[in-house]
Amino acid sequence: MKVALGQFAVAADWETNQKQCLELIERSKIEGVDLLLLPEGILARDINDPEIMPKTAQPLDGPFMDGLKQASHGIAVAGCVNVPDGEGRFFNTHFVLKDGTFIALYRKLHLYDAFSMKESRLTSPGVELPPVVDIGGMRVGLMTCYDIRFPELARHLALQGAEVLLLPAAWVRGPAKERHWEVMTVARALENTCYVIAVGECGPRNIGASMVVDPLGVITLALGEEPVLGFATLLHERLDHARRVLPVLENRRFAAPMLADA
After folding, report:
1. For residue 172, what are the domain limits?
2. Which of 37, 54, 141, 239 could disulfide-link to 157, CB 3.0 to 4.6 Å?
């Protein structure tokens, strides 16, 4: 399975961001990619205007996603957009497109009410566990940004058959934050013997630092803080080897995690 990591700085208007996404899709197609993962919040972002997220939210049949649907023929495209909840807030929605159709959707469960930020002020939480879908011959599970701090979600996906975890993010800079990002991304891969594809938005607020981690916790691709399109190949042989020599999913003594009542 060949993957592309489309790291970029999200602009304040959706037309600019759509153009950037379409360029990344076309470049990924030329490289024969099965899946392109984009960052979190790719509709619009402005660090000087925190209200921009609900103001610019669009439905999944709006013009931003329509453009990506048309471009997604022959490739899977994943990322996060803000979708109105009908009550003045929005759902942070992780989508996977393939051949013009949504094959998976997930509303972010864990909202970033930490480090002096309050995502829940404008965002409505999801109430359902994310799906696992087939892409490029592998089973792929969905997570979003802050979810990486909650190992129960990654374990749930692994027990549902996930071999790859997708993690679009907009990881905010701060003391030791890059270290947190790396440690937890590696831990979720290693403790579940899954690949993790993590793509972070870059720019003045967020760190970028997109990466691919293999099922034994080896970082096989690490990007910096500038806009870039990176590529990696995920191997069934490596996955099978990891699960043979480190059978943590078989050896565990705990029951499967469950979602608490909302």
Report:
1. 2-251
2. 141
